[in-house]
Structure formats: C-alpha cells, structure tokens
Amino acid sequence: MANQKNKAAVVTGGSGGIGYELALICAQNGYDLVLAARSEDKLEAIKKDLEERFSIKVHVFVSDLSEMGQPAELHKYCRVHHIPVELLINNAGYGDYQPVANADPATLSNMLHLNIIALTELTALFVKDMLRQKSGHILNIASTAAYQPVPRLAAYSASKAYVVSFTEALHAELKGTKVTATVLSPGVTETGFVDRAGMNASKFAQGAQANAADVAKAGYAAMQKGKLYVIPGFLNKLLAFSTRITPSRRLILAVSAMISK
C-alpha cells in the first residue's frame, strides 16, 4: 500500500460501478475518501466497509450534484473539514437512450447539468486548491461515445465530447505545474448505466461489456502518471482513433447510427 497519509480523493458517483471501483483503488493506496452520490444507504455501507478494511477515513456527502449550488457545497465541505484533496475524480453522470423527439426536456437538462456543469464547477473549484498546494490529479470520466455523434444518445455523446475537449484544454493549461488532468473514455461497461439509460435492447448492450474494476485500474494508473488520455480496450482505442482521422463526418455519423440502433 502506498503511503498517502493525510491525502484524500473526492469521488463523485462513488456508490457503484466505475466510481466505486476507483474509490476502492484509492482506499487500497491509502487515500482518505470523500464520496458524493445520492444514495445515503449505499454510501454509508461503503464507508463502513472501506474504513474497516483499509484504516482510512471516509466522508459521505449525500447530494444530487446536478442541482445548482451542490458542487460548491461539496467543495465547501472539504474546506470546512480541512480535507487536503489530492485527487478529484469526476465520475457522476448518466445517459438517456432515445430519439431527441421522444426525450423529456427536463431529463436532458438534468443530465447536462450533471455531465457538464457539475464536472466543470468541481474542476474549477478544486484545481485552484491543487495549484496552491502544488500537487494534485484530476480524472474526468468521458466515454467512447464522445468521439462521434450517437443517434439516440445525442445529448449524452455531446456532453462527453465536451468532457474530452475540456480536459484536453485543462491538461495544456496545467503543463509545467505539479497538477495534471486525465480523461478516461470507457466503452460499454458492466455498471448501472445501461439500465438507467434504457439501453438494454440496443446493439450497444448486446456485446461483451468491459469489467468496471479493469476500467478503473486503467484510469487510476493513467491519472497517477499524469497522462492525458486513457481508453481501455483495443477496439475502443481503434474506434476513437479512427473517428479522428476519418475525413467524412457523414460517414462517421452513418456508422454510429447503424450500431446505435
């Protein structure tokens, strides 16, 4: 176990899936934790388990980060409790799988607030602290859906494209400091994402799905090394790379529309 005494990791969406697996890895490496999610029961159970297993301190912050002001409240909580945040893992997010014409505008707005606004606000708040303390790593969770428009996931894929672009620019801004920014772009993974998005009947959900623990390990390792990109899985890497060299946006859209049905 690495000695990370008095250092902490903030993990949003830490009650399950990739977020939980990332929290577990942080705990295994000696980080105290601040876990933010909506489910108090799940968070309290995780707190008890991780504190007993790894002799760390776990703070529970029950919140819907899509609500205005909640990212600032999370940051305030860390400041008030004098928690030295070394890692910020922006994992919270969800999708809504259906045509835009069938979507609930309120659901799309809520999703975009969580996927984009909350992530941006948390990053802007915590990066200032990291620069002052001259150390820190930020891991933003995107998706392979970020690299092309995805019919039936139009708003979600666009939100994750924002996460990639935002992290790329942030990474460049932080060059020369001891603070880094990394973007993790997994493919379809065994989490609650498919169920919540209503994607069970889609082609996306029919093939093999990545293991959340493996995705988390790849993301954590890349974050600690200060890498900009991490895309677990050869086919996922190939997909992301091919969309960046394919000259025709119409071709990318046609292929994406075919596999998103």
From TrEMBL:
InterPro entries: KR_dom, NAD(P)-bd_dom_sf, Sc_DH/Rdtase_CS, SDR_fam. Residues 7-191 form the Ketoreductase domain. Pfam families: adh_short (PF00106). Signal peptide: none annotated. It comes from the Bacteria. Keywords: Oxidoreductase. The keyword Oxidoreductase applies. GO terms for molecular function: oxidoreductase activity. GO terms for cellular component: membrane. SMART domains: PKS_KR. SUPFAM superfamilies: NAD(P)-binding Rossmann-fold domains (SSF51735). Belongs to the short-chain dehydrogenases/reductases (SDR) family. PANTHER family: DEHYDROGENASE/REDUCTASE SDR FAMILY MEMBER 7B, SHORT-CHAIN DEHYDROGENASE-RELATED. This is SDR family oxidoreductase. It comes from Mucilaginibacter corticis.
